[in-house]
Amino acid sequence: MMNNAALEAEGSHGAFLLDSTIVYAGPRGFEALRHVWETQIGDVSPLPTFSPATIGDLRFRGRAAKVRDVAIADVRSASALQTAGTPGGVEDQVRMHVVRRGAWTLDGGPDRGEHTVSAGQFRLGHVGRPYAFETAPHTTTRIFALPAARLGPLLRNRSITGPANSAEVRLLVAHTNMVHATLADLGPAGVHAAHSTLIELAKAVVQGRFDDVEPRLAPALVQAAKDLANSRLSDPELSSTMLARQLNVSVRTLQRAFAAEGEPVGSYIRRRRLEEARLALAAPRSRLSVAEIAGRWQFSDSSHFIRAFKSHYGQTPASYARFARQDESAVRSGGNFITSNPEG
Fold this sequence. Notes:
Keywords: DNA-binding, Transcription, Transcription regulation. The protein has helices at 26-40, 52-56, 148-155, 167-182, 188-207, 218-230, 240-246, 251-260, 265-282, 290-296, 302-313, 317-333; strands at 15-18, 23-25, 59-67, 70-77, 93-101, 103-107, 114-118, 121-127, 132-135, 139-147, 159-163. The protein is of the alpha+beta class.
């Protein structure tokens, strides 16, 4: 099954986006994937030769982006993947694998041996020739193909491994998420900025630190902090101090990056907690009290939560929950319900 065709960024400008909703299955799906990949991304990162078993049992969903000489691919495969033998030839590239689920095993040849990147880990290294690999079923990986000319001198023939949640990897992943979301709408200047930031953040992974006064990296820092905050909204320790510590920057640097986007760190956390509280109040089967919801989303007490909620949404939590349930009841019965007086 396949949905949508590949989507090319407006005016090209060295950028290309492959739609993430495409599902590839079996030999026909593989041929469709190979055609798009070779014509649009293969000049930056050639598609490897896969084993017949892989092609025959292919169950794969993914997305890919090309930003000039950088390629980024998200691979979510229900089936195992394996290349056909150990390829020959020469290839000069730096590759990075960030594994979220499953395992990705790389064959570095007789001189370098096998390396398995497990879930929650990353590996970055220079590739001097086409490489063989295999994956476990149900593996989710983000792969970066990066220019050796820019990163090779920093690597000095090393391979770097570590946790996928390290500060530098978080920043790189956050930026690539923004690239996937915006690439189709970027003009030449936007593509240039996206590419420059990708290179700088990849260098930060190699060096284990990044230039926190570089203004181009501020959006990636903000997005990484938001991603981390969204995963910790119920954590009583969530704060600008905790986020800065996790991302290996000073609190001042983090606050400065958020200020550039017009919303302080604390305001973002508060807004997101209110949004989650609102969803909890509107949940059809939820029987949590206002006090329980206030506690779950780390408001100091019910009174504080009620004041904050009313200020943000224009009605009290109890009023919102009552009308939300009436709306749900009206939908189930097929009728229309219009809230005319939210304060009741």
